[in-house]
Amino acid sequence: MSPHDAVKLGPDVLSPVALGRGREKQTAGGSAAAGKDRPRWPRTPLPAKRQYRAGQLRAFRQHFFRQVVDRQDLRKDDQPLRVLAYSLVPSPGAHPDEDWGTLQAEAEQQGYAIGARLHDVAVPVTTTYFPASRASRGVYTPPWQRPGWREAERQLRDGLAEGVIVLDRHNISSDDDEYHVAIRRLGEHCRAFLHLVISEEPIAPT
């Protein structure tokens, strides 16, 4: 089982999930508020900032996917992209069997070939959240400190696969900065991509 109770929203690598959730009220930033000397624009609401950040992270991830596809096209390689399945389970007694089934079905739909299946047990870390900072904080050890994720990076560097497929970003990190670093490590150091079954979405701080 995944440690995150998420509902499958569909693949996203080549068809990003729409961020719009319906028309927002006019105070969300469409018109100026009157002032003595000049108009004052309402502050951008926090949900909009989270949406913007989620879009940035998704675009950054998809950038490396396109690089992998372009390299494959240059080699005129018509073999399916190989991916490693990865899951983060909530406790030592938990098994990622349900995740494996979801990841296998997603891989088949996308035309990927799954290689190794790797998982880690979520290890909580001490964390403090300051509401005024409006920033999320990771609640588990960073992915590059987990044995399963390190093995995934090693196999990618050795050319045993071109990417990693996971259920959602929270299997990697709920912290935006950690998640960004994990994507960059895959793309720049492993020349690999990350595929999410559930695309990045704005979340409440954890």
TrEMBL record:
Residues 1-46 are annotated as: Disordered. The lineage of its organism: Bacteria, Bacillati, Actinomycetota, Actinomycetes, Kitasatosporales. It comes from Streptomyces incanus. This is Resolvase/invertase-type recombinase catalytic domain-containing protein.
